[in-house]
Design brief:
- Among the domains are: 5-63 and 176-236 and 330-394, FAD/NAD(P)-binding domain (3-Layer(bba) Sandwich); 408-499, Rieske Iron-sulfur Protein (3-layer Sandwich), CATH 2.102.10.10.
- 25% of the residues lie in helices and 30% in strands.
- The chain has helices at residues 5-9, 33-44, 77-83, 86-110, 131-143, 174-183, 298-311, 353-367, 376-379, 386-404, and strands at residues 22-29, 49-52, 68-69, 117-125, 148-151, 162-171, 190-193, 200-202, 207-210, 215-223, 238-252, 259-262, 268-276, 279-290, 313-328, 334-337, 343-347, 424-430, 433-439, 445-449, 460-462, 467-469, 476-478, 483-485.
- Strands 3, 4, 5, 6, 11, 12, 13, 14 and 15 form a nine-stranded mixed beta sheet that branches. Strands 1, 2, 7, 8, 9, 10, 16 and 17 form an eight-stranded mixed beta sheet that branches. It has a four-stranded antiparallel beta sheet with strand order 21-22-23-24, with no helix packed on it.
- A hairpin with a 5-residue loop joins β19 (433-439) and β20.
- α2 (33-44) runs parallel beside α6 (174-183), α2 runs parallel beside α8 (353-367) and α4 (86-110) crosses α8 (353-367).
- Bound molecules: FE2/S2 (inorganic) cluster.
- FE2/S2 (inorganic) cluster (FES) is lined by residues 452, 454-457, 470, 472-475, 486-488.
- Pfam families: DAO (PF01266), Rieske (PF00355).
Length: 503
């Protein structure tokens, strides 16, 4: 089974589920870094806030992330500069640096035990094919006052053709940060509910959010759920991907802390170190792919392990996990109000989400208090950038259209339940309908409609995480049908296995 190092090491939480009907100023859906940091600020501003988390705090992408914080970006600053302009790239770097500083201040102010430390960030190429990329990033960094040192070698055992180092970036345990900050939120003004799944939002002058055992009425709603829950135009401009991580415990080797990004890796994309009283670890992260569009997901973990063993003296792989990210069409995240309706979201963070999550909270704090924010316009959620978005927009939406073709007759993976092995899931064609059929370790068969409850795409079995993943907008469901993440509100519809003769 997959398990994140951060969630395993962070303190547990025990917030109640919502059991009644309440009214607040701001309802926040999602208890990750965006939701909890927003709640912290808004409660401090005197607003009545409720946080509704469907699982446990930091139990989603935040707890499954890298734990890296940096002002640079996955897409590289020089790409932002060429797609947008110099002013934009500078603002991106400055706003992200401000978010990292803010995290550091919160950690210090509240003495949050989350292993926050400043570390260098490295960008390197193993062969000379990407030397030009490194060169451009050095020039761009220098233009923005970011000191980037060139290096001939790295402090980890990787041969490089070229490399740069930027000091002063940071790492922490993101789950420990979020859970620690949640304890410091003004509890008079903010209530946190865990295991409280929002399954419907009735929009109006006052929005009403329905959960299993109660409702929340609020004039303002923040969808801190990565992709916003429900159907929004922005979902055509954010593209869901998964990435994998392993934490390899080392027999020997004590490497300096740092964030190490490989520019040319087709598979492994970054590494970082981690130490505690049990030993030294190296985390290897990579294997991007579109959600729900692979045949063999377990192979990503296998390749990361091979890579770790090739470079380091690995004792064992203690943790392995995966996380989702959404790449934005025009290279920048979408943060702000959906459409003058009091619904706010923050999405399209790519793999830079911890820093952007806190930046989102900084923006929401001002917007929901009627103040201007210097970065709100740059990241605004309802921007329209057809020229900057066109290439990705066309390519990705053709890809989504192709996923809908899986609903055609004859496109199922099996026609009989006995073709589904123990611990396996398959899409089975039953009376012209696609069923998501999972056979658990005891041989019990769980049947659901394979039609995603968001916008009717056909889900795909993820063998590494035992989940049903939707290839269109990234909704993911447990093997037993419940929503894990993504824009879908409702679980997969149950189907009755007993109604089948061949079951
Ligand atoms: Fe949109 Fe499944 S996530 S159709």
């Amino acid at each position: 089974m997959t398990r994140s190092l951060w969630k395993a090491k962070a303190q547990k939480t025990n917030y109640p589920a919502l059991k009644n009907n309440i009214t607040v100023d701001v309802a926040i859906v999602g208890g990750g870094i965006t939701g909890i940091t927003s709640a912290y600020f808004l409660a401090k501003e005197g607003k009545k806030v409720a946080v509704l988390e469907s699982h446990e705090l930091a139990g989603g992408t935040t707890g499954d992330s890298t734990g890296n914080l940096y002002k640079m970006v996955d897409k590289r600053l020089h790409h932002i500069q060429s797609k947008w302009d110099e002013k934009t790239a500078r603002a991106v770097a400055e706003s992200r640096a401000a978010a990292v500083d803010l995290i550091e201040n919160l950690v210090k102010e509240h003495e949050i035990k989350c292993d926050f430390k400043r570390v260098p960030w490295y960008l390197f190429s193993e062969t000379n094919k990407k030397d030009e990329t490194i060169e451009k990033e050095i020039i761009t960094a220098k233009d923005y006052g970011i000191k980037a040192d060139t290096l001939q070698e790295l402090p980890i055992p990787v041969q490089v053709s070229s490399a740069i180092k930027v000091e002063g970036q940071a790492q922490f345990n993101p789950a420990a940060f979020v859970r620690g900050l949640a304890e410091k939120i003004d509890s008079e003004n903010c209530h946190i509910y865990e295991h409280t799944n929002v399954h419907h939002i009735e929009k109006g002058e006052d929005h009403v959010l329905s959960t299993q055992h109660g409702t929340v009425t609020a004039k303002k709603v923040i969808l801190a759920t990565h992709s916003p829950k429900g159907i929004y135009p922005v979902q055509t401009a954010i593209y869901p991907h998964r990435e994998y991580a392993i934490a390899a415990k080392l027999n020997s080797g004590d490497y300096p802390d740092g964030i190490y990004w490989d520019t040319e890796a087709t598979f492994h994309t970054s590494m970082r170190t981690f130490k505690n009283h049990t030993g030294n670890y190296v985390l290897v992260l990579g294997g991007h792919h579109k959600v729900g569009q692979e045949d063999n997901y377990e192979r990503f973990f296998e390749k990361l392990e091979q890579h770790a063993r090739k470079l380091f003296d690995v004792a064992e792989i203690e943790y392995k996990w995966s996380a989702q990210h959404y790449k934005p069409a025009d290279g920048l995240p979408y943060i702000g109000e959906s459409s003058d309706d009091g619904i706010y979201f923050a999405t399209g963070f790519s793999t830079d989400g911890l820093t952007y999550g806190v930046l989102s909270a900084m923006i929401f704090k001002d917007l929901l208090s009627g103040r201007e924010n210097e970065w709100a316009e740059l990241y605004k959620a309802k921007r329209f950038t057809p020229i900057k978005s066109a290439k990705n927009y066309i390519k990705e939406n053709i890809n989504v259209a192709k996923q809908y073709l899986k609903d055609l007759p004859g496109k199922a993976e099996a026609e009989r339940f006995y073709e589904v092995g123990i611990g396996e899931g398959k899409v089975v064609e039953v009376d012209d309908e696609k069923w998501a059929v999972y056979k658990d370790e005891t041989g019990q068969v769980h049947c659901h409609s394979a039609v995603c409850t968001h916008m009717d795409c056909i889900v795909d079995w993820n063998d590494a995480e035992k989940s049903w993943d939707c290839p269109c907008h990234g909704s993911r469901f447990e093997a037993t049908g419940d929503v894990i993440e993504g824009p879908a509100f409702s679980p997969l519809d149950k189907r009755d296995v007993k109604s089948r003769k061949d079951s």
